[in-house]
Amino acid sequence: MQQSRDGMAYGVAPLPDMNLLPALDALLRAGSVAGAAAELNVSPSAMSRTLGRLRRVVGDPLLVPSGRGLTRTPRAQEMQPRVQAALADAVAALRPPREVELATLQREFRIRTNDGIALSLGAPLLELAAREAPGVRLRLLPEGDEDPADLRTHVDLDVGELPDPLPHDVRSAVLHEHRYVAVARADAAFARGPLTAARFAALPHITVTRRGRTHSVVDERLAELGLRRDVLATAPTYGAACFFALRTDALALVPSEVATETSRVLPLAVLEIPLDLPTVATGQAWHVRVDTDPAHRWLRGALARVASEVTPAADAAPAAP
Questions:
Q1: pLDDT for 143-190, tens place per residue?
Q2: Long-range contacts of residues 123-132, Cβ cutoff 8 Å, at least 24 apart
Q3: CB pairs under 8 A, 24+ apart, for 286-294?
């Protein structure tokens, strides 16, 4: 209860003592002080005092003498089902969440990611969901000007190369690390046999960037060897880069799992990049609001399982420069 400047009270009235709710429920069900006392494992005198407090709070005697026992007043009879329901709801709210029933789960999840991860993990995740939780619907959202704050509202999961640091109310976990490889037309002469660093630099390149940047760690590694490359084109997505490579004599640089998926359906050769390049971590991030939600925990676990089963395009370590 707040007070105005003139001292008058206004606002919401204070809540009654909610500890009285279990006693009220027991009294209304038992219809006696002794029965309610035995159920709650307190003395009859203590329960009698609690009944007195309840009468003052409710403004009704609740239980009145009738012969040798007590009977409920009309107000008590009217409020009994509501008291039982309120107590049941309160108990349910304070219990840990139950394990989710995947077979009957009806849920829509919004996952923001790039097209490379959608290509490599999207289909396996859909297959797993169809087997384990057929009522789940996945909505894959494209990357844009990502704001981790979106996880507080309309994005359930961010998947990709995560910013560092993340907001204090965002949790994250690494899914896997990937490396980059090159893809080219399978019938291109240079696609036969391994690439040398000099040949790699001499061929035109297609890189993937949403902002049109052409310089990366690849250029730094080439510069250490006294080499430069020619970026023929930039593509906004890895899928587009693979299609560009099909129609040119250029190398498209893509994550190994993207190369694996695209080379299964397109006539592309997968080539090792002859440079010592760092691997890139792919992670998933979510807001604390869903951290303990059983359905969201299943989604995160399902994505982790799918990511662990992704087979790289080539298992050998990258060749030395």
A1: 866 677 889 888 999 999 888 888 889 999 999 998 999 999 999 998
A2: 124/306, 124/309, 124/310, 125/302, 125/303, 125/306, 128/302, 128/305, 128/306, 129/302, 132/102, 132/298, 132/302
A3: 286/151, 286/156, 286/157, 286/158, 286/170, 286/171, 286/172, 287/151, 287/152, 287/169, 287/170, 287/171, 288/169, 288/170, 288/171, 289/152, 290/156, 291/171, 292/97, 293/97, 294/97, 294/98, 294/99, 294/100
**pTM score of the predicted model:** 0.69
The amino acid at 12: V
Tens digit of pLDDT for each residue in 223-276?
Answer: 999 999 999 999 999 999 999 999 999 999 999 999 999 999 999 999 999 999
List % helix, strand, coil for the chain (3-state, nearest 5): 40, 25, 35
Helices (H), the chain: 20-30, 33-40, 44-58, 74-94, 115-117, 123-132, 197-202, 217-224, 238-246, 256-265, 294-308
Contact 219, 193 (CB under 8 A): no
